[in-house]
Design goal:
CATH topology: Glutaredoxin
Helix content: 25-40%
Number of strands: 4
CATH architecture: 3-Layer(aba) Sandwich
Order of helices and strands: EHEHEEH
Distance between the termini: 12 Å
CATH class: Alpha Beta
Radius of gyration: 11 Å
């Protein structure tokens, strides 16, 4: 089953870094997932996240306010 990954952030350098890390992990490990960037502040607020970037996997907030390592992202997706 395909995972739904959302990266919450307004497009700041940290948010872009997180997007890069997640995309690398998904591609390198051939994970079946869709990656969606959520930059609209109103949408971000619906997740009740105060610090970005945030990583949401299948509607569960897994990381917020920091950039996870590739290993951490892989663990979260497995």
């Amino acid at each position: 089953m395909s995972k739904v990954i959302k990266i919450l952030g307004t497009g700041c350098p940290k948010c872009q870094s997180m997007t890069g890390v997640v995309q690398e992990v998904v591609t390198a490990n051939k994970i079946d997932a869709s990656i969606e960037k959520v930059e609209d502040i109103v949408e971000i607020m619906k997740f009740n996240v105060m610090s970005t970037p945030a990583l949401v996997i299948d509607d569960v907030i897994t990381v917020k306010g920091r950039i996870p390592s590739k290993d951490e992202v892989l663990k979260l997706l497995s």
